[in-house]
Amino acid sequence: MKKTVLIILLILNAVVLLGQIWPEGVPPFARVVNIIFLIGSFLFFIRTFIGDKTKN
Question: Is the full-model pTM beyond 0.85?
Fold first, then answer.
């Protein structure tokens, strides 16, 4: 499960990065991808942080 989430976040990160490098080629749904990436990353980091604290 964790690996799947990381792969999805990496793909979204690549789309976000491409939009920063080549703004003219940004697809119309880029804003939505940016928001999903930020929310997904935030939730993943919080879950990982909380999960690590409960294991110790």
Answer: no
